[in-house]
Amino acid sequence: MGKDVQQQQEDRLNSGGTGMGAWLWHRAKPYTPPWIVTGAVGAAGAGAHELWGNSPWAGVGLTLAGVGLTAATWWAGKSTGQQRRLHSAITVAAGATWFTASALSGPLTGPLPDLYLMGGTSLALTWNIRQVMRSSTPEGAGSDSDKGLLEKVGLARTKLKDVKVEPNRVTVPYELPAGELTNDDINKAIPRIASALDVPTTAIRVQHDPDSARKGQFVIVPEDMLKQPTIWPGPFAPGESVAVRCGSRLRRRSDLVLPLLDAIHLLVMGMTGSGKTEGAVDLLLEILTRNDVTVWLADAAKAGQDFQPLVPALDWAALDTASAGAMVDAVQAVIPARTAWLRDHSYRAWEPAAAKTQTNPAHSCASAGACGCPGMPYLLTWFEEAAKLLRELGDDVFTGIAQEARSAGVSLVVSMQRASGYQLSTDTRASLPAAMCFGVRGDDAGFALPEEVLDAGANPAAWGNKRKGYVYLVSAGVEEDLYANPARTFWTGPPAEGSYERMARYVVEHFASVRAELDPVTGAAAEQAAGPLFTNRRARAGAASAPARPVQEQMLLDDDGQEDGDLVEMEHDGIDLSADLPPVENDAELPPAKPSTEEARELLDEMVATLASVGPGTVAVRDLKPYLEQIGRDRSWVSREMKRMAEEGRLAATGEEGVYRLIPTLAGV
């Protein structure tokens, strides 16, 4: 029965004259309240005249009531927009004034009827116009729903300006009330805004106006377009110079590349499983297709396990601790040599022309004409899982490289899980101007990302290692508006399918004729610093990547890693391998035991005292490197101990990391 009645009502609405009238009434109904109020005020004014028309005290009471009602309306509108507050107060004041005059003189006295018809109609129409315009947001103010949301999150009276809507992206400029809120309040409100909009906090980013402390814009990306990984599509600029915005395309929405020459030095940080290695492979696949760059890579922690397919394309792959330490020394040595070559050829800094044979007289080391010297390719030095190397060599091992390599055409990449002050010196971290931060734990993102990027909404801890390959990129040459936008590295495919090996083989073989060879200046400096570890680098990389030999076979290798033929052919006839070993003679020398902590500190004190008496007046951690075996500790332990001695007043800090001024009277205490 109810269904039949509903159907009849719908039929009436959709039929001729009656239906049209019902439709018009339905459309006009939202605009009737102002007219109803206007009619009610007129009727009330006529009735009030019958009650109080001859009472002077009623005039006083009605006047005070009108003033009080207007003030209450103004006070109640404090939390609303300025336009609504003013409009409401004017309407109440006009209605109260006419009502008072009508009650005292009568609604048909003098101009009161005309004022009622013209004024009441005008006020009712203004509210109707406001109702019509409510669906659009006026310039400089937000809608009522915007005001309610902003009030909930603690940003009342914030003005939202022209909203720009794009596919899966909404940009909302804002202007905070002057003197009440700042952009810092916006940063603190991001979690509450995300809660109100029911989106993850990483979906909301804030871009501050650099010229204002209270202006900026929200960028809201409600749907994560990076969920599905994208297979590496091939090199970005194959065969081009490394100066052509080099690196990895990191976003699906638009290409985000790492400008290596702008970044210079790069810190790569991310927890286990966050995709840090995949990002490294992504970058190396790109860089190894360029025509004027050579790559040195050190990975002593995992012996290059993740980079084996790319090793043939690397000029030097240091896959053990000894080789990695030698690479550090080599990089330190090649910087002044490369800088001198660039200076002699009139280059203020490395540029692509420096990688070519020097046929330009303007870049010649000869007194007249072109010198014809071989070019000097750019050098990328990549230290993967650098924490192990820092523990062995000290937390300041990269400080000099990072501070001096910029003008030598050398880039330093330090990759590690957590770049805390315990592992990487603050001076080194400050000298790494670019950062790629993958997923991390807790507040670790502060070790890699600037504070303003974190305030703008960057939060790599939100996904940790649950979204492999998600990363924030901060670097010179990248638009600052993109710093707080998460990106995702390309994927090399499932390991079982061998797609990574196929990609690496393509890069290694197809671009073999494109890649530059190491220049003689860099090679000579590296050989002088690292010796056989550099000259035999390709053989050592191959040996490190080969399957491990059985223990018995390893024992038959000489010091140079070559098999001793005599020992291999040695017969074991007549030797009882199950017999007990002969007893050790009393005068036999056993290997010295590792000194205890107290003994190591005493040895260190003696060495510092010796340097105090014969040295140049200062002592550095590197000065004690030849004595590490005698002390029985690594360089990082020595660095910590010397810091402790400085705190105790036994050494004086010089302002340079790892270097102290000797105090002879106290150094040996």
Automatic annotation (TrEMBL):
Origin: domain of life: Bacteria
Molecular function per GO: ATP binding; DNA binding
Ranges of residues in domain FtsK: 253-447
Keywords: ATP-binding, Nucleotide-binding, Plasmid
Keyword Transcription recorded: no
Entry coiled-coil feature ranges: none
InterPro entries reported for this sequence: FtsK/SpoIIIE/SftA, FtsK_dom, P-loop_NTPase
Residues at which ATP binds: G270, M271, T272, G273, S274, G275, K276, T277
Signal peptide bounds: none
Keyword Cell cycle part of the UniProt annotation: no
NCBIfam families in UniProt: plasmid_TraB (NF041214)
Family matches, as PANTHER family: DNA TRANSLOCASE FTSK (PTHR22683:SF41), SPORULATION PROTEIN RELATED (PTHR22683)
Protein name, UniProt field: TraB protein
Species annotation: Streptomyces flavovirens
Name of the encoding gene: traB
